[in-house]
Amino acid sequence: MELPTKPEKAKQENPKFLILFGKPKSGKTELISRLENNLIIDLEDGSDYVDGLKIKVHTVEELLEAKKAIQEAGNPYDYITLDTGTALEEMCLPLAKKLYMSTPMGKNFKDDDVRKLANGAGYLYIREAFMKILNAFRATTKHLILIAHTKDRTINRDGKELSEQLVDLSGKLGSIVSSKADAIGFVYRKKNETRVNFNGGEDFVVEARPQHIRGKDLLLMESDKDGNLTTYWEKIFK
Known about the structure:
Structural class: alpha/beta
Distance between the termini: 34 Å
CATH class: Alpha Beta
């Protein structure tokens, strides 16, 4: 092995896996619908009010069929968005059961929900199923986006109880998925603006590896007095 003798320049600039999370009606779906050549895979019937490249999926079988169709078409989309992570987690339950039943201890499992296993053992298989789907779609596009809801977590810092906003996925899944992301941004509205915050501070579990968005609070969409929308996705995807 030849060791380096001088610094090597970064090979990746834009996030390959982006998580956008926020409260309901914060503009997440509208925002992603205006990203050029972005296929929205709508998992919870939330795209009816926006234009865009979109398909609706209701089962994990349909999701895998969509992945196969994308591959057979030559992976034509620069971006694919899974909307939302919460719906995807529920959708993964049959696959999680299948994974559990492929093990010696699970071969006689009769229930449909592995979350009922003792001591939370079933969440391991939900995590495996979720990551299996996520990785399958990461292989079909240059940039994968996961839309997620937000949940509050109470933490104690210096004797004070604080509320922290983080991605709404169960158990360890939220932190595992977040650790795989190149950037995690909190979407929120401010008057006529839709903004994405990559500068967490004390209240938000957000981060970004790409230097051009790290620590930034970015204006990504705004409306004029007539309701016309302008987006600035180039601030994230240069």
